[in-house]
Amino acid sequence: MFTIRQILRLYASGKGTKFISKSTGIARNTVKKYMYRYVLSGKSIEQIEKMSDAEMSRLFLIKEPLRVINKRVSDLEPMLPEYAAMLKKRGVTKGKVFEVYAAKYPDGFRSSAFLVRLNQYMQLSKPSLKMTHVAGDKMFVDFTGQKLHLVNAVTGEINDLEVFVAILGCSQLTFVMAVPSQCKEDFILGCERALHFFGGVPQAIVPDNLKSAVTKASRYEAQLNDTFAAFAEHYHTFGYPTRTYRPKDKALVEGAVKISYTTIFSKIDQKVYHDLDEINRDILIHLEVHNNAKLTGENYSRMEQFLELEKQTLQPLNPYLFEPITVQLATVNKYGHVLLSVDKRYYSVPYKLIGKRLKVKYTTTQVQVYDDNEVVAVHDRYKGKDGKYITIQDHLASHHKYATDWNPQKFMTTANAIGESVAKYIAKILAREIYPEQSYRSCIGVLSFAKRVGDTRLINACKRADGYGIYNYGIIDQILRSKADTIPMEDEIPNTDMPSHENVRGADYYE
Q1: How many Cβ atoms from other residues are within 10 Å of residue 326's Cβ?
Q2: Which of 101, 125, 149 corresponds to the end of one domain?
């Protein structure tokens, strides 16, 4: 009885006979027998669950053949598999199948009774779960198979355009947009325009397993690519790809694609377009007509249903548009910074990560650094010409934090107080293309000589080092140690030209 209950639960959840057979280890024909008795019983799965084992035994474990109502039933049942197979052939309808049956059994069932039994058999052999869509739950997205076209106004070249389609599950409100390609940037642009068209965000976005959204497809848990995952996070929703080879998972958007061929494509094809914005403006005009048309067999439109049931259930939009994120890897250098290669600029991370290889994600405005999946540093992306190193003080080791008080203005103020030559020399040290902290250490070392040897000697040493074109602490130390600063510079040596005199013959004498 436990096995039979398990079979019925799987059947009620929409599983097929093949799946149930593999899951339970019961032969498919036996599974079909139990399922057929379940259908004939007319009971719901809840009623079956409440039955005792004895009651279920009497219902399902009957050894004698099932009692047929009359001869017409016994004639039809063996023919049902053959009739179901006929429907798979091109051009064969249920009406034609009935004609075949009526020709063989003229005293058999009439058309309506025949179709009831045929439909029951087909549902039993291939059960399908009807999906109920909750308001504000899902937005289904896909690209159409057919394409629209742009014509180059100069060359006459025809370029294909991909067409993005999005539909809300509950109200069936539809959005359509032409984009240049199916790349992830255009796919995300379509998703973002759809969210703004609907005026809110659903709980999930359901794409097909296209590469623009999914890195690795899976029947159970697909892996989203980083850009689409970041887009979903930006709008506080999540991506929920359909199962592979399960078109019914996105039957709504598949239907919207087919409808768009008649309501939009057929009208767009009547005009030649040279501009993408122009074609999208016309698509919105035709889309408005489509969304305001009454649904088949109903007295309301998609837009009316959206305004009444779904609009208020959507989450609010993020006030900022999504910026695509670029990812790179970088190793933390010995100064505790990672290089953003596109800008050739360094951003600090906690000093404990020195030597580790980290993931850097950046947009046009922000830089984020990750250690595995944990954010370890966030910076505003710097766009100025100066500032090669961007440092947050908390990222430094405690014995390095005092260095953050160093700055060029402080060194220049101290140098100007000593003398103009010293200030000029310090400015050239600061202008070197090296790590700032190293330049600051050189400045501190040079300025410290003022207390040891006096301002005058330091001024002279800076003049001589400037004459050499060398700007660092070491050359100043060498000049002062060798007392080269006491040697007059060439421009300080007195003029020793020989004065004019009558006894001096001059160069002309030797000609």
Answers
A1: 14
A2: 125
Mean pLDDT of the chain: 81
Q: What is the pLDDT of residue 258?
A: 79
pLDDT of residue 394: 78
Bridge partners for 328 per DSSP: 360
What confidence category does residue 402 fall into, taking pLDDT thresholds of 50, 70 and 90? Answer: very low
- Confirm if 141 and 209 have CB atoms less than 8 A apart: no
Contact (CB, 8 A) for 237 and 315: yes
Instruction: Write the CATH number for 215.
Output: 3.30.420.10
- Tokens 């698509």 belong to which residue? 283
Q: What is the pLDDT of residues 442-459, one digit of tens each?
A: 888 899 999 999 999 999
Domain extent at residue 331 = 326-397
Kindly state the percentage of the chain with pLDDT values over 90. 18
Question: Residue 215 has what DSSP assignment?
Answer: E
The pair of structure tokens assigned to 234 is 């930006």
**466, exposed or middle or buried, with CB in 10 Å at 0-12, 13-18, 19+?**
middle
Q: What is the pLDDT of residues 268-282, one digit of tens each?
A: 888 888 889 999 999
How many domains is the chain partitioned into structurally?
4
Beta strands in 322-436 (DSSP E): 326-331, 337-340, 345-348, 357-362, 366-371, 374-380, 389-390
pTM, rounded to two decimals? 0.46
Instruction: For residues 18 and 340, give the distance between their C-alpha atoms in angstroms, rounded to a whole number.
Output: 54
Residue that is last in its domain, among 279, 313, 347: 313
- 437 and 342 together in one domain: no
For residue 399, pLDDT beyond 60: no
175 and 298 inside one domain = yes
* Same domain flag for 33 and 54: yes
Helices 408-418 and 420-430, packing angle to 10 deg: 160
Residue whose C-alpha is closest to residue 169's, from 242, 267, 236, 231: 242
Quick one: CA dihedral 261, 266, 269, 274, positive or negative? negative
Q: Quick check: 437 pLDDT over 60?
A: yes
In the structure encoding, which two tokens stand for residue 341, read together? 């290669």
